[in-house]
Design brief:
It contains 16 helices and nine strands. 41% of the residues lie in helices and 16% in strands. It has 403 residues and is α+β, with helices and mostly antiparallel strands. The protein folds into three domains: 65 residues, no CATH class; 78 residues, no CATH class; 231 residues, 2-Layer Sandwich (D-amino Acid Aminotransferase, Chain A, domain 1). The strands form two sheets. A five-stranded mixed β-sheet has the order 1-9-8-2-7. Strands 4-3-5-6 form a four-stranded antiparallel β-sheet.
């Protein structure tokens, strides 16, 4: 509903908030509506105000460009986030703000909750044209330059990458990366699965450090961090102590992607041995080993695991890839292959089946193996992939509910 169509009491309520956030805009709106003597609102709730503005078609930038909105942002980030935003002034804008939050998440140093970030991303991309591309781009492909790069480097979020000197470095570095579209309801998963008559491979989604490895004529050549355009990291020295140095039945250049992590029991051992490193999670511990292998002893790498889940030139379907990974000595995530005909067609039955036969089973297996997980991947075996314009694949989704 447009504001001029709302009851007078509502118009006055909205105008009071507009005047508080942007006096010039508020006076213009008061004049256009022929309303005078509106007091400001000194107890404004910025989120409720955004919702109110949206309901009555008031430009949302009036709220998000205000000092009160800036105070809200500071309230939802941690101390590191506050420091980053302070250092970014006076070059701070909505794009840099999002890029800072994405960089911190990318390098396993999050400063804002996923829920609050999602709110900001959806809001900013709807209002500010220069942020729209982030909605369809993986954070692995974000570019940091100028003052933004200086701030991220100064605060220890970014450090100079160390790409291996190999003629295959740029080939592996430029390999296309996609993210997995998250789903938060059984209804969405039911629709995704039954949108085709494909068999499905369910696998535990490992919460680790993503890495890309390259093999040349069956021999291990290099391993790099995920991402294409920003400075990357050379993981070769660390991962060559963990993954097979030779594979079979391939030719040319083969890429194998996966997640590296440390088991919880090994994390405790590392923290006891290196108390000053303050390794907080299995993922961050793996990241430390990958980026700075020379700062650890050989036995420390016994707890580092690499789980393969994708690749190129090593099988056509995901089942073929998994078979090749297992044959060549790679770890793969716990998985369950289900024929399409075995999947319930009725939603109520499907929901019970998915919970007890898939989600519970994979979660329990992950707990037994001490694999850090943030969901379950649901992947179609028979799928016609398209060249999507966003960062997601047509073949899979990530189940983000239940456990």
């Amino acid at each position: 509903m447009k504001l001029n169509e709302a009851p007078i009491a509502v118009q006055k309520q909205v105008l009071s908030k507009v005047l508080t956030l942007n006096r010039e805009a508020g006076l213009q709106m008061c004049n256009s509506l022929g309303i005078e003597d509106i007091a400001t609102d000194n107890a404004i709730d910025i989120i409720d105000t955004v919702l109110l503005f949206n309901e009555y078609e008031v430009p949302l930038y009036i709220a998000t460009d205000s000092d009160i909105w800036k105070q809200y942002i500071y309230s939802v980030v941690n101390e590191t986030g506050k420091k980053l935003l302070n250092n970014l002034e006076p070059f701070r804008d909505k794009l840099n703000e999002l890029l800072v939050f994405r960089a911190c998440y990318r390098y396993n140093k999050p400063v804002i909750s996923d829920e609050n970030y999602d709110t900001l991303l959806n809001l900013y991309t709807a209002i500010y044209p220069n942020t729209v591309y982030l909605k369809s781009q993986s954070y692995d492909d974000d570019v940091y330059d100028g003052i933004l790069k200086d701030v991220l480097t100064k605060n220890g979020i970014l450090s100079k990458g160390t790409l291996k000197s190999s003629k295959y470095t740029q080939t592996l570095r430029s390999a296309k990366t996609t993210s997995i579209l998250p789903q938060e309801s059984y209804e969405d998963t039911f629709s995704f699965i039954h949108s085709s008559h494909s068999d499905i491979l369910f696998s535990l989604k490992v919460d680790g450090m993503n890495a890309k490895t390259g093999y040349v004529d069956n021999k291990f050549e290099l391993a790099l961090s995920r991402g294409r355009y920003s400075d990357g990291f050379d993981y070769t020295k660390a991962l060559q102590q963990v993954i097979p140095n030779e594979i079979k039945d391939t030719s040319g250049f083969v890429t194998i992607t996966g997640e590296a992590y440390i088991k919880a029991t090994n994390l405790q051992k590392l923290n006891a041995k290196y108390p000053n490193k303050d390794l907080k999670t299995p993922k961050s511990a793996a990241g430390s080993l990958l980026v700075a292998p020379d700062k650890y002893d050989k036995e420390d790498f016994e707890g580092l695991h690499f789980i393969a889940h994708g690749g190129e030139n090593i099988g056509t379907t995901i089942t073929e890839k998994y078979a090749s990974f297992i044959q060549n000595g790679f770890e793969v995530p716990p998985y369950i292959l289900v024929l399409y005909g075995e999947i319930p067609q009725d939603f109520a039955t499907f929901k019970t089946w998915l919970k007890s036969n898939i989600l519970d089973v994979l979660w329990e297996k992950g707990e037994q193996l001490e694999i850090p997980s943030d969901g379950v991947v649901c992947e179609k075996i028979q799928v016609s992939l398209t060249d999507r314009k966003d960062q997601y694949s047509d073949a899979n989704v990530a189940i983000k509910y239940e456990q």
